[in-house]
Write a sequence for this structure.
């Protein structure tokens, strides 16, 4: 007999955000299909879910059509860190654009609601601060980040054209820098890099003068925003900024992580990558008003969970110089895999 559970497809479900989303959806009683080509995602991220009868994992590249019966689609598949998305830039654009077309086509065919994981990168190196959803951005179309930025911009265009042309039910979230357990240890993103370097007592690589800023959202807060947006009335299409509007400079983050890990690391300056945005922070007024959403987890608490995760990972891999961990402060709540 057919199940009455909501059937949800999560593309990129074995990645950092995708694995947390799959976990959350399963906890809510959904039937979850995780689709991933494991380019940056890892089976380890979803290993603990595989035994659940309502969870299924499929190896598939969303650049190719997919035919499955589902009620909702969360389209997260796309490498997200600069070194990963710049590794094969043509594939990054294909994943964003062709992948979006395939997922929108699927949504149209099976009449599913479809969510797009867009990004603050669509604002480029912004000259409006904080960034509101009506800001149109400042992207260099020719630079090394363009494969991702323009791919995601085109995906947004496709989502809104499918809304206008085919009356699809769409949800577009613009995600700002998010961190937490299950980030890839080698993805080069600032939080994972600094924590791994600090735990190994290796130099902390601060690019440029370290005065560039980002606003860091803990993964659990973000996933709450995803679920609220998906559950919102059909008239709510987004785009909606999701992020933690507390701005931190990269230099401050480095200092904080050194203190919290009790590391002997020093700070090593490296050149600033091309087109690295100087300042980034979301205006989340729309998410607060429409979804009643705002982040709850302070940076220190989120970092404690993330440090504990990487400490365990490096210890398991025998990559940590010392077995003991000194995290300043208390760890609130359970640490998940
Ligand atoms: P991630 O790299 O951990 O996850 C991406 C997942 O997509 C991986 O599991 C990868 O293997 C998979 N994937 C890549 N190309 C694919 C393809 N062609 N077919 C099938 N699977 C494919 O990154 P993440 O941080 O979890 O990001 C998830 C989504 O959220 C991405 O779309 C990203 O652009 C968006 N996003 C993330 C952040 C952030 O701070 N984490 C910020 C803005 C936007
Ligand atoms: N960054 C850094 N050292 C690192 C990794 C990143 O100083 O080892 C800086 C990077 O130049 C950028 C910021 O941290 O200014 C955030 O980088 P990340 O790659 O995490 O995300 P994004 O640039 O996409 O926001």
């Amino acid at each position: 007999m057919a199940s009455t559970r909501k059937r949800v497809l999560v593309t990129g479900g074995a990645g950092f955000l995708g694995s947390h989303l799959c976990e959350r959806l399963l906890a809510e009683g959904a039937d979850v299909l995780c689709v991933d080509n494991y380019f940056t995602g890892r089976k380890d991220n979803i290993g603990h879910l595989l035994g659940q009868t309502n969870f299924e994992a499929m190896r598939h590249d969303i650049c190719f059509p997919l035919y499955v019966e589902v009620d909702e689609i969360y389209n997260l598949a796309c490498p997200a860190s600069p070194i990963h998305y710049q590794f094969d830039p043509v594939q990054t654009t294909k994943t964003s654009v062709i992948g979006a077309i395939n997922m929108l086509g699927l949504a149209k065919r099976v009449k599913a609601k479809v969510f797009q994981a867009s990004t603050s990168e669509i604002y480029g190196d912004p000259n409006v601060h904080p960034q509101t959803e009506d800001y149109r951005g400042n992207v260099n179309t020719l630079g090394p980040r363009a494969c991702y930025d323009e791919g995601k911009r085109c995906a947004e265009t496709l989502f809104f054209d499918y809304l206008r042309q085919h009356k699809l039910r769409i949800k577009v979230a613009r995600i700002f820098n998010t961190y937490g357990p299950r980030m890839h240890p080698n993805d080069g993103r600032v939080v994972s890099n600094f924590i791994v370097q600090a735990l190994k007592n290796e130099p902390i690589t601060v690019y440029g003068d370290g005065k560039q800023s980002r606003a860091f959202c803990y993964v659990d807060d973000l996933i709450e925003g995803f679920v609220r947006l998906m559950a919102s009335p059909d008239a709510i299409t987004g785009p909606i900024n999701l992020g933690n509007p507390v701005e931190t400079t990269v230099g401050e983050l480095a200092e904080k992580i050194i203190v919290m890990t009790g590391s002997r690391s020093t700070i090593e300056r490296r050149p600033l990558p091309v087109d690295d945005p100087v300042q980034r922070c979301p205006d989340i007024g729309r998410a607060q008003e429409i979804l009643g959403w705002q982040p709850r987890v302070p940076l220190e608490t989120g970092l404690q969970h993330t440090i504990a995760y990487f400490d365990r990972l490096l210890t398991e891999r025998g990559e940590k110089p010392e077995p003991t961990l000194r995290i300043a402060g208390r760890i609130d709540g359970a640490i998940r895999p």
